[in-house]
């Protein structure tokens, strides 16, 4: 079970910082399917991961994006910091940094062992997939930020 908040709850105790890349090409978003070895096997989510000690959110997003997909960001102009969500799992509170990365051309994707497939889909198509815990709420929040 997961709870997702747009404002930081008064009893929120941050354990982890997570950064996520909403990689956009035209009207499609890059979505990754977790491999069968992962806790939420076969579920989908955007490229994301925990920040390492002292890492800035944007740097962590670029590192995770490269590690999970092989995508290198050439221009900082293609990155937009969007907002934060506050997520709570039973034993962990974490801050989720959302970034949008806009690409002019479709990149070649090289998946890490964490993922077994990827797709470029519209936000509506993504909503029909089995998504990771918290991903539905994050996608809905991302949709609102697009208006």
Automatic annotation (TrEMBL):
SUPFAM superfamilies on file: Nudix (SSF55811)
Gene3D superfamilies, per the entry: Nucleoside Triphosphate Pyrophosphohydrolase (3.90.79.10)
Residue ranges of domain Nudix hydrolase in the record: 12-143
Any one GO molecular function term: hydrolase activity
Annotated Pfam families: NUDIX (PF00293)
Domain of life: Bacteria
Keyword Phosphoprotein applies: no
Keywords attached to this entry: Hydrolase
UniProt keyword DNA-binding present: no
Protein family according to the UniProt entry: Belongs to the Nudix hydrolase family.
Protein name: Nudix hydrolase
Source organism (scientific name): Candidatus Criblamydia sequanensis CRIB-18
């Amino acid at each position: 079970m997961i709870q997702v908040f747009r404002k930081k709850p008064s009893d929120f105790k941050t354990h982890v910082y997570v950064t996520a890349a909403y990689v956009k090409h035209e009207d499609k978003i890059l979505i990754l399917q977790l491999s069968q070895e992962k806790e939420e096997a076969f579920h989908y989510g955007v490229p994301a991961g925990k920040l390492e000690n002292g890492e800035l959110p944007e740097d962590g997003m670029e590192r995770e994006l490269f590690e999970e997909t092989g995508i290198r960001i050439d221009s900082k102009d293609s990155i937009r910091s969007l907002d934060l969500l506050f997520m709570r799992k039973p034993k962990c509170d974490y801050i989720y940094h959302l970034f949008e990365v806009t690409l002019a051309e479709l990149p070649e994707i090289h998946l890490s062992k964490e993922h077994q497939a990827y797709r470029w889909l519209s936000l509506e198509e993504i909503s029909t997939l089995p998504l990771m815990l918290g991903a539905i709420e994050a996608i809905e929040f991302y949709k609102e930020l697009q208006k």
